[in-house]
Write a structure and sequence with these properties.
- This protein is α+β, with helices and mostly antiparallel strands.
- It has a single domain, classed as Jelly Rolls, CATH 2.60.120.10.
- It contains 5 helices and 7 strands, in the order E-E-H-E-E-E-E-H-H-H-E-H.
- It has a 3-stranded antiparallel β-sheet with strand order 2-3-7, with no helix packed on it. Strands 1-6 form a two-stranded antiparallel sheet.
- The longest helix has 8 residues.
- It is flat.
């Protein structure tokens, strides 16, 4: 195992219909042409995982590192992540170029009973 160091990630970009082009200006990044609705800055999600952009782990996804390193990566206070084998955070920036609907998320008990490990 390589020694851990500050990781930099290549974000996962999502192009939902309600997105815009503001993230390029706000983040000072060159982004691909077209609509960018979300930039997943730190993600180990089945729909997209950030890729390490620097150092010995460059080219590896955050999901791969979580599986390999476990609590050494996510910290000893994140037993939930170790128990379920997932990184405990999804950090995303949104460019809502249109009004969005309200989203209500269930509490932990309901989610575990009806959504399982998601």
């Amino acid at each position: 195992m390589n020694k851990l160091y500050p990781l930099l990630f290549t974000p996962v970009l999502k192009d939902y219909i309600w997105g815009g082009r503001n993230l390029a200006d706000k983040l000072g990044r060159e982004l691909p042409a077209g609509i960018i609705a979300e930039s997943w800055e730190v993600a180990a999600h089945p729909d997209g995982a950030s890729v390490v952009a620097n150092g010995a782990y460059a080219g590896r996804t955050l999901s791969e590192l979580q599986a390999e390193l476990g609590l050494a990566l996510s910290g000893s206070r994140s037993a939930w992540a170790e128990e379920r084998g997932k990184f405990p955070l999804l950090v995303k920036l949104l460019d809502a170029n249109q009004n969005l609907s309200v989203q209500v998320h269930p509490d932990d008990d309901y989610a575990q009973a009806h959504e399982g490990n998601e």
